[in-house]
Design goal:
Blueprint: H1 2-15, H2 52-63, H3 67-73, H4 90-99, H5 108-136, H6 141-149, H7 156-170, H8 182-199, H9 204-207, H10 218-238, H11 245-261, H12 273-283, H13 292-310, H14 314-324, H15 327-332, H16 339-356, H17 367-386
Helix pairs in contact: 2-8, 5-10, 5-11, 5-14, 5-17, 7-8, 7-17, 10-11, 10-12, 14-16
The chain binds protoporphyrin IX containing FE.
Length: about 400
């Protein structure tokens, strides 16, 4: 009987063309932990691993109705070296004392090198992460559904601003410094995910399409890491941006520490970029696809980036998304074609980067258009990051209303 069910699942998987995908029903996890920073593993499937300690803390906060007072208490808790704020339950304080620090294997020299690299490349990273990874997240089915049905899905402008907070706090000159913000921001994010893991299983609409007992497993977080960081590195290389081996190591190291701070076990965190690429091949690219929720989220997100925010033509933005991702993803999201803008983007974006980086002496005719675009995207991060009212990361108390 068990065999029959398994066969049925596999047959269905094959019919849907999903055989071999990690993280979907009926398929095996096949990335070896030999390529992890731990160097070995238990053989566990990261899509079956969550974050038990954080999840238990979040459960207690929700059950005791403590979330609003924690949000108030930690509003002023921002700097990496700031003491934990008063006004939080003892068990939350005890948990944060355990996790709000760098792992023993964190390398301060590499983290400092990542700050330099990210400062140099921030404008390209912001382009890759907003119009690239941000829109790609809407074709990662589990992520799209989780975001849509959580509270933040009903206010994507706020949610995007919170994500900019994370991006800005990581990609600046003092991310890891005592007066930087990133360690605190990552810890807040880890706890947001833990609260979501407790809340979403109570949403009937989310559950209707759910394929795992609770969302945001270690595997799902790694998948998002690839859609952001592995993707960004491949973009930088594709655009011929000079990246030394030491810089690439620093980039990976900053993300290894980030994944640890987000609650991912060391047996799953890739050790080298080659290991990361192999993991992404296994767990990210094969599972991308459209969902009703993702199409709706993408529409909302692109609406903020086009005319009202940056004064950009929607044809230009849609074609940039298609260029950064690919036409299949653009088609899934129903992005209308604009072939004139497509030609402009495909020819002139690489020329713009080459000129800006000093690789070419020829200034493309559309230099100012791209410059306005790059500055506009950067300002969305910088305004949010440097403003005294940086959009704070808060724990949700409920799912999406309605
Ligand atoms: C919240 C980043 C992976 C779903 C957040 C927040 C940040 C963040 C900064 C807080 C801002 C906010 O509340 O909107 C990340 C990073 C990830 C990651 C850096 C991996 C590298 C995931 C995955 C999922 C997910 C894999 C789902 C499968 C959510 C949801 C929220 C959230 C539902 C809460 C939104 C709400 O408040 O309703 N994430 N995330 N995240 N994330 Fe993630």
């Amino acid at each position: 009987m068990e065999n029959l069910s398994r066969r049925k699942v596999l047959t269905l998987g094959a019919a849907l063309g999903i055989a071999g995908m990690a993280g979907t029903t009926g398929t095996a996890w096949a990335w070896s932990s030999k390529g992890s920073i731990a160097g070995s593993g238990t053989g566990a499937d990261p899509f079956q691993v969550w974050d038990d300690t954080a999840d238990a803390v979040a459960k207690a906060l929700l059950t005791e109705g403590k979330v609003p007072e924690v949000n108030t208490a930690w509003e002023s808790w921002i700097d990496n070296n700031a003491p934990l704020p008063a006004g939080m339950p003892d068990y939350l304080v005890a948990y944060l004392q355990q996790v709000n620090k760098l792992p023993s294997w964190a390398d301060p020299a590499k983290l400092a090198a990542s700050e330099k690299l990210y400062t140099r490349l921030s404008s390209y990273l912001f382009v890759s992460e907003s119009l690239g990874s941000g829109i790609m997240s809407t074709v990662i089915p589990r992520e799209a559904r989780a975001v849509y049905w959580s509270a933040g899905g009903a206010d994507m402008k706020q949610r995007a601003a919170k994500t900019f907070t994370f991006g800005y706090d990581l990609h600046n000159s003092k991310a890891w410094a005592p007066d930087g913000h990133f360690v605190v921001t990552a810890n807040k994010t880890r706890l947001v995910h833990a609260v979501v893991r407790n809340l979403l299983p109570t949403s009937a609409k989310y559950q209707a399409g759910a394929d795992q007992p609770k969302p945001i497993s270690n595997g799902d977080i790694l998948r998002t890491f690839h859609s952001v960081a592995t993707f960004a590195r491949s973009n930088m290389l594709k655009w011929n941006i000079a990246l030394s081996t030491a810089e690439q190591d620093a980039d990976l190291h900053a993300w290894q520490v980030t994944l640890h701070l987000l609650g991912v076990q060391e047996q799953f965190i890739p050790q080298t970029w080659a290991d990361a690429e192999a993991q992404a091949q296994h767990m990210l690219w094969p599972v991308l696809g459209p969902t009703e929720e993702g199409v709706s989220l993408a529409k909302t997100l692109l609406g903020y980036i086009e005319n009202p925010t940056l004064g950009l033509d929607s044809g230009f933005v849609n074609e940039l998304v298609r260029y950064l991702l690919n036409d299949q993803m653009g088609d899934w999201l129903g992005l209308p074609r604009d072939y004139a803008q497509a030609a402009l983007v495909r020819i002139e974006w690489p020329a713009y980067v080459a000129f800006r980086e000093g690789v070419s002496k020829i200034m493309p005719g559309s230099f100012y258009l791209f410059d306005q675009f790059v500055r506009g995207i950067s300002m969305m991060y910088l305004n949010n990051g440097t403003s005294p009212t940086q959009t704070p990361i808060t724990l949700p108390t409920a799912n999406r209303p309605g």
